[in-house]
Amino acid sequence: MTEFLTTTISVLDIDADVIIAGYFSDQQTPYAAAISEGTDDFVGNLMNNGDFDANANEVLTLPYPTGLKANRLVLVGLGESKDYSPLIAMRAAGSAAKTLASKKLDHVAFFFPEENLTDAISGIVVACQGQDILRSEVKINAFEKVSVASENDADVREGHIVGRAINACRNLVNQPPNILYPETLAESAVEIGESAGFDVEVWDEVRLASEECRTLLAVAQGSDRPPRMLTMKYNGADETSPTLGLVGKGVTFDSGGYSLKPSDGMFDMKCDMGGAATVIGAMQAIAELKLPVNVIGYCGLVENLVSGNAFKLGDVIHSRNGKTVEIHNTDAEGRLVLADVLDVAVKNGVDHVVDFATLTGACLVALGLDCAGLFTNDQDLCDQFKSAADEVGEDSWQMPMTPNFGEQIKSNVADIKNMGSGRWGGAITAAKFLEEFVADTPWLHVDIAGPAWSDNAKKWIDGGGQGCFVRTLVKLAKQYGK
Ligand SMILES: [Zn+2]
């Protein structure tokens, strides 16, 4: 784990392997002025000659800079100062760090604006962890030590905690499905809870049966791996404060069941527990930051496979909240898992519930790879979440929930069916299904089928799990109940 320390040593005097320095295109920071002074305005000349424009995420590495003690100076652009945001800070710091992460570096000095420093620190932490966790020799390495030119220990500490929580989420998503399945995912959550400071209760298949979680169990019954359900409690506020419920879909591998996916669509289905990973990562960050808020996270963990005992098309399942569900497609399993978990959450009396799920391909069709769909029965809750997401720079967009879509999940033989009529509006009919299980509790469903995962690496983050919405949830938890 990288050690982050604040320092007051000047950019000219600091003895580090590398200095990372953030540059605005239109404004000089104190450290940029010091670099100009100590180096005959070397960087200024580069900028005047058009060799470095300081556009956001532009990286230029200068070896053995005269006038500096460090061996290398990495310049990274922050764009225009008026546009500087948490997202730009995180991506710029990440872009600089990721260009260096191929080597094992002992000491990196970090000179960035004080504004959005937390996000920049998180950006370094995230950029220096890759998805190559099972390679004999990893190609993306964390730095031993980072000296941050700041006196703001609290921001640096927070950025480190949030970055590590995002990485915990990404790491769970990146684990292969033969290693990470319901029991081992539950064990990981217990370990994270012990170290971060929240309680984790695990329901096994016997307890799930006695708790009547029959739609969750129906999905799980095709696998030899038994299902689990997690209840993770963090009480940072007093008993009279409201409780935020977070619910995560944790399908550790989704073959589609008898509605079998083709190989291309099945290959990356280890990421179908991305909702659970977001909830666990957020719990880690909220507990380590000791935020004054009460949060309970619930995750349903199953594997969706094919066997002689798997659930079938045409089966009718009696869900935990009493509604009967006819199965029209065994690949629409996430909503069945969430149905019972949402019922547990609302019956336990959470005041608001936000669920995260890699739920539908239809959401990808509607909103693309990087934008989450928002579906709600409570506009205030949705607005709070959306504004938190906008502030940190995570894309989301609200979708309609009009009664017409609810008509499409009516069944001829049971109360509802687990698919809409045809494929149109599939992200919405899935949300209408979930709405059947939240009673009157203010609820928001976040479909993260796009942003939970990326096939390709970006300049500031490796491919694989992306750790989406951990930062948004930290922001939301800070404002919750206020
Ligand atoms: Zn599925």
Q: Round the Cα radius of gyration to an integer and report it.
A: 24 Å
* Helical coverage, percent range: 25-40%
Give the structural class: alpha/beta
Number of helices, where a helix is a run of at least 4 consecutive DSSP H or I residues: 16
Topology, number of strands: 19
Strand order of the largest sheet: 7-8-10-9-13-17-14-15
Q: How would you characterize the largest beta sheet?
A: 8 strands, mixed
For the record, the CATH architecture of the largest domain stands as 3-Layer(aba) Sandwich
Proportion in β-strands: 15-25%
Number of domains: 2
Low-confidence residue ranges: none
Corresponding CATH superfamily of the largest domain: Zn peptidases
CATH topology of the largest domain: the name is: Aminopeptidase
Principal-axis shape equals elongated
Calculate the mean pLDDT score and round it.
97
Bound molecules: zinc ion
Report on the structure:
The protein contains 16 helices and 19 strands. The chain has 482 residues and is α/β, with parallel strands linked by helices. It has two domains: 149 residues, Leucine Aminopeptidase, subunit E, domain 1 (3-Layer(aba) Sandwich); 309 residues, Zn peptidases (Aminopeptidase, 3-Layer(aba) Sandwich), CATH 3.40.630.10. It has an eight-stranded mixed β-sheet, with helices on both faces. A six-stranded mixed β-sheet has the order 1-6-5-2-4-3, covered by helices on one side. A three-stranded mixed β-sheet has the order 11-12-16, with helices on one face. A hairpin with a 5-residue loop joins β11 and β12. α13 packs across α16. The two termini are 34 Å apart. The mean pLDDT is 97. Bound molecules: zinc ion (ZN). The site of zinc ion has 5 residues, from loops.
